[in-house]
Amino acid sequence: xxxxxxxYTQFQAKKFLTTFCGSRNWVNSMMKDYPFxxxxxxxxxxxxxxxxLNNKDWLEAFSHHPEIGNMKSLRKKFSSTKHLAGKEQSGVxxxxxxxxxxxxxxxxxxxxxxxxxxxxxxxxxxxxxxxDSLEKRIKNDYNDELRIAxxxxxxxxxxxxxxxxx
Length: 166
What we know:
Order of helices and strands: HHHHHHHHH
Number of helices: 9
Distance between the termini: 20 Å
């Protein structure tokens, strides 16, 4: 393969990996194992790369997510991942106005307390279930919540990888 074609392929791979997780260090770590032989090697690399992230990396990854329930934010800011995040948050579409207002209010309080948005693997969850998780997790201390949010980020990423044709 020519050097130019290889560079283009690597650029495309980095761009594609960013749709799974927005941490640059995670993507760079993944690229060390590129090209991936199969999905198993992709997942193995993802898990290894997650283990190398620090708090700053996790916060960067979180910044690539729309707030739970904020469909306007999803459409505007996150157009490159809206096909994934929209499916993940589909439980919000059926929520009552009251539940959506509670989600919005608690999202603001959560972000004020922790400095990052509420991260949850929303796939298959109703808005009420997400609200219940948010109500419980807002009581955590910073370190516990960062650890929980990081685990949720891992779940989201691995789920996205399983959906996309890789």
